[in-house]
Design goal:
With about 110 residues, the protein is of the alpha+beta class. It is built from 3 helices and 5 strands; from the N terminus they run E-E-E-H-H-E-E-H.
């Protein structure tokens, strides 16, 4: 096996998102840079962008992670979102996207009078 300096896949648990450990960030205390692959229903990808990219911009501002929403193949049912940054940044972005997906897919209970 040859080391080409690329990311190393580290699955957290079977069937879970794939984490890749990259190089260390520069600075006084190096922080590991990770990458997480998240799959969301294709129908929700436009909503994650939001109007004029507003929702995605907000997730980027809060998490400070780098987020790439890939273009799915025509037959694909899911869209791949790649999140990278420190473990804290990737966790924050993943949590925000997960919360958004849940809010878009779980119907609100009607209030009873």
């Amino acid at each position: 096996m040859r080391d080409i300096g690329g990311p190393m896949l580290l699955p957290d648990y079977p069937g879970g998102p794939q984490r890749r450990m990259g190089r260390f960030a520069s600075g006084s205390q190096p922080a590991p840079i990770t990458s997480v692959d998240v799959f969301v229903p294709r129908s929700l990808a436009p909503s994650i962008y939001g109007e004029d990219g507003g929702c995605l911009k907000r997730i980027l501002e809060i998490s400070e992670a780098k987020i790439i929403i890939t273009e799915p193949r025509p037959e694909a049912m899911e869209t791949l979102i790649i999140i990278s940054g420190t473990p804290e940044q990737t966790h924050a972005a993943q949590s925000l996207i997960h919360a958004f997906v849940l809010s878009e897919t779980v119907p609100l209970e009607s209030t009873k009078s």
